[in-house]
Specification:
This protein is of the alpha/beta class and 266 residues long. Helix content is 34%, strand content 19%. It has 9 helices and 15 strands. The chain is globular and about 55 Å long.
Length: 266
Amino acid sequence: MARRDEIECWLTDMDGVLVHENHALPGAAELLAQWTNSETPFLVLTNNSIFTPRDLSARLRDSGLIVPEERIWTSALATADFCQSQIPGGSAFVIGEAGITTALHEAGFIMTETNPDYVVVGETRNYSFEAITKAIRLILAGARFIATNPDATGPSADGPLPATGAIAALITKATGMEPYVVGKPNPMMFRSAMNKIGAHSENTGMIGDRMDTDIVAGIEAGLHTILVMTGISDQAEINRYPFRPDEILTGIHELVSQEPLESDAI
């Protein structure tokens, strides 16, 4: 496993690491600038499949963080990448919003309600009984069942919202079929992210705030894992799991002064 000073590429989670409730966390802007100035390859990852990278780049800019859209990797992009690798130019019936539909379109997929190769469930704020019914019938007729991410709930200012995992569970209950989940904690999301920036596991670091998604997937993908305590993890939460990150930091600000200011790559 690489030491931190051997890391040449970085993957970082977004919520709980760089931002919290649309406010930049201490050190986030400085670290992103440091990576950019040193031409260090990096991607900002999120399991949220509602938004396109362009949307997320704009939201981060409103928080004071400069992240170009090509530096953002979502579970929707990872899902489209997976589907395209399996059935190039395939078709899908989608329950979701712009993040997943745009990603699938750009991967060459056709959206259809007639004999699709896949039923893809992503994050949505517009649940439709009719669409769920259609998804169930298509899966029972042989369509492959894919979910962008397993999160059962998502955060909002008013409290938890049902998320992708909740609606996927409803479809599973009705069909008896479990979806293949592409997003974290599936390490495939990290592998597809590394492919995008030409990174290799032996010299890539992963920064996250959740043991059950970021850290376990990072470990399984062979990455140097760093848990920051600015999200939901505390020591009691860490102790619940049989695995450990390589490093535990109070926040991303601890990486700023210790990162090399210029790329070591010759």
